[in-house]
């Protein structure tokens, strides 16, 4: 299948994509999937690992923006309070949060046996969307072993998109959707930086999607209210404070709004933004730590990158997912099929 850019949906913007147009364009970031298939099952887990080291010992600076909080994610409160992440980030279905949390906790304890005994406990970070329209969510199919498999599969380079991993059973705007990713390059004061987005797209009312060229695709499906969710993970190597990271996370919402989203009452819309620059040591050797921070007068380029990358990542999730039947028998069509039938003249 073709990406949104290959379909010609992305006009030349202010910022260029990275070499892979993926969150993994940020050095050190890796992504892995575990897809579950079986009788009534169409679900999975997706892992985002900020750097290849021990995340508990060397914590990336981070912030979270809850745009609309109809969600059951784990670990957000501590990120908001302390401004760091200390485990990989797992995405899954709503009822898979507990299994993924257990996997992250056990993995962290195995690497750091002092956790919970001689040092602090660990804050497992898990995000979710409800894939129950396609997947039998009551089966509670996701296990800690599936989370481990997604983590073990994580690698840099190209990221598989569409109906894969946590995105297996997700839908958006009446179309089949799932996992999508994109990136943008930024040049500030003669230095090069990257911002990448990975989304779990499961939101948007039927018929509300607006393409960058102004078209409103009709999925030819029954109208549905905005009751889905979207998780946006933004990664960058730009040195930003946790306050600036939250401001950047908020701009992920601008990318969603460009597509026609309005964050309905029943939608869980959450953005996590982290930087690989100047991570925080769990046990610092000195009382004071030196950290770089971008001057606010130069931050607009990061805001633009967050909006552009989020928008394109969602479009990739839609374009890369094939038509899929729901548990009710309804077919969630592929945006790619609509684009084939409705070429841009």
Automatic annotation (TrEMBL):
Please name the InterPro entries in this protein's record: ArgJ-like_dom_sf, Peptidase_S58_DmpA
Leader sequence range is: none
| GO molecular function list | aminopeptidase activity
Q: Which domain of life does this protein belong to?
A: Bacteria
Show the Pfam families listed in the entry. Answer: Peptidase_S58 (PF03576)
Per the record, the similarity remark reads: Belongs to the peptidase S58 family.
- Sorted alphabetically, which PANTHER family does this protein's record hold? BLR5678 PROTEIN, D-AMINOPEPTIDASE
Q: What is this protein called?
A: S58 family peptidase
Native source species:
Shinella zoogloeoides (Crabtreella saccharophila)
Q: What is the lineage of its organism?
A: Bacteria, Pseudomonadati, Pseudomonadota, Alphaproteobacteria, Hyphomicrobiales
């Amino acid at each position: 299948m073709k990406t949104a850019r290959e379909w010609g949906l992305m006009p030349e913007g202010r910022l260029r994509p990275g070499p892979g147009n993926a969150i993994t364009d940020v050095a050190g970031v890796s992504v892995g999937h575990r897809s579950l298939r079986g009788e009534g099952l169409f679900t999975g887990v997706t892992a985002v690992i900020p750097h290849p080291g021990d995340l508990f010992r060397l914590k990336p600076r981070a912030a979270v923006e809850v745009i609309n909080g109809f969600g059951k994610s784990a670990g957000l409160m501590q990120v908001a309070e302390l401004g760091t992440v200390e485990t990989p980030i797992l995405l899954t279905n709503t009822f898979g949060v507990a299994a993924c949390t257990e996997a992250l906790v056990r993995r962290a304890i195995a690497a750091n046996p002092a956790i919970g005994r001689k040092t602090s406990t660990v804050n497992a970070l898990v995000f979710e969307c409800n894939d129950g329209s396609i997947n039998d969510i009551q089966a509670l199919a996701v296990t800690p072993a599936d989370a481990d498999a997604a983590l073990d599969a994580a690698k840099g380079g190209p990221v598989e998109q569409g109906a894969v991993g946590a995105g297996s059973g997700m839908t958006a705007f009446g179309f089949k959707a799932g996992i999508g990713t994109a990136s943008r390059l930024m040049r500030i004061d003669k230095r090069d930086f990257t911002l990448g987005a990975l989304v779990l797209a499961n939101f948007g009312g039927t018929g509300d999607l607006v393409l960058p060229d102004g078209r409103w695709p009709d999925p030819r499906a029954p109208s549905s209210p905005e009751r889905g969710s979207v998780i946006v993970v933004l990664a960058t190597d730009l040195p930003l404070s946790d306050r600036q990271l939250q401001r950047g996370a908020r701009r992920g919402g601008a990318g969603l709004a460009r597509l026609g989203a309005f964050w309905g009452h029943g939608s869980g819309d959450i953005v996590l933004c982290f930087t690989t620059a100047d991570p925080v040591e769990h046990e610092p050797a000195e009382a004071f730590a030196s950290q770089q921070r971008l001057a606010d007068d130069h931050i607009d380029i990061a805001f633009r990158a967050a909006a552009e990358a989020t928008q394109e990542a969602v479009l990739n999730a839609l374009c890369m997912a094939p038509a899929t039947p729901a548990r009710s028998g309804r077919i969630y069509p592929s945006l790619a099929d609509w684009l084939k039938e409705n070429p841009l003249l």
